[in-house]
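Students often ask what a 'structure token' actually looks like in practice. Rather than answer in the abstract, let us consider CNTLN protein, a protein of 350 residues. Its sequence is given first.
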Amino acid sequence: QQEKEDLQGKLKLREHLSQTAGKSDAIPSPSKNTDLEMKQLQCKLKSSNNEITKQSATIKSLKKEVQEKEERIRALHAKISRLERDLNMKRHLVEDLRSRLKANQENEKTSNETLESLERKVKALAEDCSNKKTSIDSLKQRLNVATKEKSQYEQMYHKAKDDLEKKELKLTNLESKMIETECAMTELETTASQQLHGLAKQSGHALETLQKKLLLTNDKIEEFMTFVKALTRELQHSVQELRTKIKQAKKMGEVRACKKSLSQESVQLAASILNVSTTDLEEILEVEDDEETAKAKMEFEKDKEWLQYIQKLIEAQFPFASYLMDAILEKLNEKKKLVEEYSSLVKHTV
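Now compare that with the structural description of the same chain:
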């Protein structure tokens, strides 16, 4: 508005200047400076007119905006008044709700206390109920057992009653028979006493013969046991002898091989160095290896176990013949193998 007022003042000045310029046409021509100033002012006027038109357009648009904004402000004022009413209503509602909340909280506290007390009571009642249920179940079980026992006893009683009646009948029959048998017994006793004397004599002779047969069988068993033990020992002894013979044959072969490799002079020289005879040197050469000694120990332990096994078989209950036969055959096969080995060694050494 201030710019508008300034521009209007300038316009009025220019109009005044133009009027004065028209009047000055009658007056003798002024100086060149004034002309220039006039031209400049006219240019400024034109530019100011353009600016005024622009400003008036902007003013109109601004007026419209101001009107729109005023309408908006009115609408906003209406809204604010409504919102204030709503706010007041809501405040009243909030205050009511707070008062109700306080009352509800107080009620809730009391209700919680009552609930806790009720829960305790419910727990106590539940425990009582569970205890009572268990007691009722146990009582039911006892009742069932008692009813079963009662039915069983009743059945037993009826059975016993029936048996008693039957036995009473049997007793009467037996008593009648007993009288008859007593009469027969007296007759039998007389005949039996006579027959018993004869049987006693016969049984005495039979017992004597049985005792003699038993003694003979015991003697035979002992003889058989001694025979088996002697046989097993002989077998074991012969196997051991064969093993020693095989060892000796092997050593002889080794010694002969050594003697072949060593000359008689070298043997004598070694004997003179060691200050021993040639036979002692041969014995030194025939020292057993650790492996051979370990093998011999193993074989000795196996023989020992075999003898113990046969002893167990003999002492065991019947039947043991097949097991005994298998054990002896096993040892015989071993002996056969050793004999074959020994004969092959003897052939090679010869």
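One point worth highlighting: Residues 229 and 311 are 8 Å apart (CA to CA). Ask yourself how you might have guessed this from the sequence alone, and why that guess would often be unreliable.
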